Predict the structure.
Amino acid sequence: MKNYFFLQVYSLVKKIPRWRVATYSQIATLLGQPRSAQAVGWALHACPDNIPWQRVINKAGMISIINERAPKTLQVALLKTDGIKVIKNEGDFFVDLKIYRWLK
DNA sequence: CGAATGACCAAGC
DNA sequence: GGCTTGGCCATTC
């Protein structure tokens, strides 16, 4: 396959500890390409179900997912299972990055 | 190969 | 201070 970037993203996301979360730009940066946040988001959109995609959120700590197969409510449930507190605000969900941000 | 897409980001209005 | 615009980049059409 030639989609190395996707594979790298998946590989890295799998390494995120259960009690932590990462941002799209963080993933991109760790892969050596700080400008590829958009591509990271797209990689996760492929959502191979064997990766903890719920631990990856945008830079504001907000869950802006738009996916029938993986609704926000599901992501929130999974995050709670991981021991992460999710804050609900006007229909949107947030994670406190100051507390849960993955420090690699 | 050129154009379009998208779960992003930063700057502008 | 919330919404729009343009720029990023890898993948798909």
